[in-house]
Design a protein that fits this description.
This protein is α/β, with parallel strands linked by helices. 28% of the residues lie in helices and 25% in strands. The protein has 2 domains: 1-55, no CATH class; 56-250, 3-Layer(aba) Sandwich (Rossmann fold). The protein has 8 helices and 12 strands. The relative contact order is 0.13.
Length: 257
C-alpha cells in the first residue's frame, strides 16, 4: 500500500522524515475524496491517517456481520478520544447528515481538532467537549509519556517514562451527552472504554454501532466483550492482540429521523 493511500501531499510527509529534525512543519494532505488532514510532527498523525485512508478503514467503519443491518445514516456520532480530529472529519464526510460530539481532554489535541475541522469547513457540525470521560465529575491529570500523543492517559503506567502532566476536566457520560443520543460511538481513550461500558449499562443509551479500542493494560478484554454483549450487541473482535477493537452492533437497531 502506498503511504497515506495516495493522498496528495504524502510526498511532503516523506520528505519531512528525511529532513527530520530540521524540518518539522505541518503538512496538509488531501485524500482522493477531498478530505484534508494536517499531519503534524507527531508521528501518531501519519499512523492514524494511514488507518483511516488506507486498508484499515474497516477497523473504524466496519461492514456489519450477517443478519445485522448497516448503519449508513446516523444522526449523532460520539467521538471519545478525538485526538487530532482525523476520525471526526472522516466520519462527518461518510455520514453527511450527522453531527458529532468530539471529546478530547488535551489542550493541544483540541487545537488540532479545531484546525482539521476548519480545513474541511465542518465546525458547524461539531460540539467539542474539552474533557475526559470518567466515572464521576472532577479534575484529573493527563499524563504525557514518551509513547507519543497516543500514550496520553489519566493513569500512570509502570515502565513508561512520564514527560509531564496536564490538568484536565473529568465528566460523566451523561454530562458529555447533555441529552444527545448517539447512533455511533467511537472510543479510543486509554482505558475510558471500561468507564463507558459501565455507564452505558446504567443508562438507556444504546448506540446502534460502537467501535471500542480496548487497552488491556487497564482492564480485561473478555470481560468487556461479555459486558457489551449483555447490553444487546453482536460483537466482533478486530485489531491486534496488543490493541484489540470491539466492533459492536446493537441487535435490531435502526436509525430514524
Amino acid at each position: 500500500m502506498k503511504p497515506l493511500a495516495g493522498a496528495k501531499g504524502r510526498r511532503l510527509v516523506q520528505l519531512r522524515k528525511l529532513m527530520s529534525p530540521l524540518l518539522q512543519r505541518p503538512v496538509v494532505i488531501t485524500s482522493r475524496d477531498g478530505l484534508k488532514l494536517e499531519i503534524t510532527a507527531d508521528p501518531v498523525d501519519e499512523l492514524v491517517a494511514n488507518d483511516l485512508l488506507g486498508r484499515n478503514q474497516a477497523l473504524w467503519f466496519p461492514p456489519p456481520p450477517d443478519g445485522i443491518a448497516d448503519i449508513d445514516d446516523p444522526r449523532v456520532v460520539l467521538d471519545l478520544g478525538a485526538h487530532h480530529g482525523f476520525y471526526a472529519v472522516t466520519a462527518l464526510a461518510r455520514y453527511p447528515r450527522a453531527t458529532l460530539i468530539a471529546v478530547e481532554p488535551s489542550g493541544a489535541g483540541v487545537a488540532s481538532v479545531r484546525r482539521n475541522l476548519s480545513l474541511n469547513h465542518l465546525e458547524h457540525r461539531v460540539r467539542i467537549v474539552e474533557a475526559a470521560l470518567a466515572s464521576e465529575r472532577g479534575r484529573g491529570s493527563l499524563w504525557h509519556t514518551d509513547e507519543g500523543s497516543w500514550g496520553n492517559s489519566l493513569f500512570q503506567e509502570e515502565g513508561v517514562t512520564v514527560l509531564g502532566r496536564e490538568p484536565v476536566e473529568l465528566l460523566t457520560l451523561d454530562e458529555i451527552l447533555d441529552g444527545a443520543r448517539p447512533d455511533v460511538v467511537k472510543c479510543n481513550a486509554e482505558g475510558a472504554e471500561f468507564a463507558l461500558i459501565a455507564q452505558l449499562a446504567r443508562s438507556d443509551v444504546r448506540p446502534a454501532l460502537m467501535i471500542l479500542m480496548v487497552h488491556p493494560e487497564f482492564g480485561d478484554l473478555d470481560e468487556a466483550r461479555g459486558d457489551v454483549e449483555a447490553l444487546g450487541y453482536r460483537v466482533v473482535v478486530s485489531g491486534t492482540d496488543s490493541r484489540p477493537v470491539l466492533q459492536a452492533w446493537r441487535v435490531g437497531a435502526t436509525v430514524t429521523d
